[in-house]
Amino acid sequence: MYLKLNLSCVTKNLSLMPNINLFSQIISKLDRNSFNRFVKAHQSDKHEKGYNSWTHLIAMLFCHFAKSQSVRDISNGLRSATGNLNHLGIQKAPSKSAISYQNKHRPWELFRDYYYWLLGHLGQQAGFKQVKFRIKTKIFLLDATTISLCLSLFDWAKYKTTKGAVKMHTLLDFDGNLPTYVNITDGKTADNKGAYDIPLVKNSVIVADRFYNDFSLLNVWDSNKVFFVIRHKENIKYVVIKENELSDKRHQHILKDEIIVLKNDKYSKPLRRVAVWDDVNKQVIELITNQMTWTANTIGELYKSRWHIEIFFRDIKQLLHIKTFIGTSANAVMIQIWSALITILLLKVLKALAKYTWHLSNLVAFIRLNLFVKINLQLWLDNPFDNDENTYEIRAQGDTP
Predict the structure, then answer these.
(1) Is 299 helix (H, G, I), strand (E, B) or coil?
(2) Above 80 in pLDDT, residue 299?
(3) pTM for this structure?
(4) Which residues pair with 242 in a beta bridge?
């Protein structure tokens, strides 16, 4: 018996093997020069104590990619990459005390501003675009999610008598399913109250649930030429001024399409009311909108797309390290949330650039398993299970070459 080594395969594989690990290749997609501009603007390295802002960012991204449970896990995890830290742009792994100190004192706004910059930069590179609706209007999905905290540890996060929480008010871009705006408040802030400061894009449409059935808020949107599709509450009072005819060729789940006027002075313009049958939950969903020309089916499908934001909240809570926190100060919590958003942005970019059709949960799990493995990132994203290009050809005597 003898082993036959395919030398051409070996040569090919060695040429494809990078000198840096998977985590370093992911980090290389970040623009450090742009990050340094934000560091200078926020003066976040003024009291760095040997742990600069870039090292801090890398440590927090490692926290999410590796799902580290403590500052000890982050410190020890990065120490295990000895010899490869220079590829990450850092000199040495941070200590536990350094991570804790800077999580408490470094301005969290640095991470927020860098996320928004990355969204514009990497989002364009990845070419996020979902083609589902014939309308050319920009679509945004609005909702809020509550992140529970232990009140005895996070005494600043008032929510209920025995519970603490913060709330993420999120405006999600339908293309790419990434937040274009996040407002983090205490858990007591009502969903609609946290939405007054969202950036408004002319001629866009905002889709939201009944918690945003605030007519003062809808007035602000309408006056800024923003369309909305909102599920209305059962107790609203209105007068029907016109009932649009439903064609026999319509989608059968459309039950009603009418023009109404509210019996209050908070919103004086006519609204369109569309009733849709939800076959999954066996219920009627009643919607109001200030869009008068789109088909009733488009209005219903727009509201149905709102579940993308629920999926986003599920992903960020289940796949990243955001249910528990490595620091107890308000600043540390904010840094962990914003670094989680940077992480999921990177993951969505990788998913968009891959030829292989990844589920986000599988992509996260596979990266976590191979974080410090030296494999070519793009080839691995495209062919994660293609062993022929990543192993030697070994045969026994008598096998056909």
Answers:
(1) helix
(2) yes
(3) 0.88
(4) 259
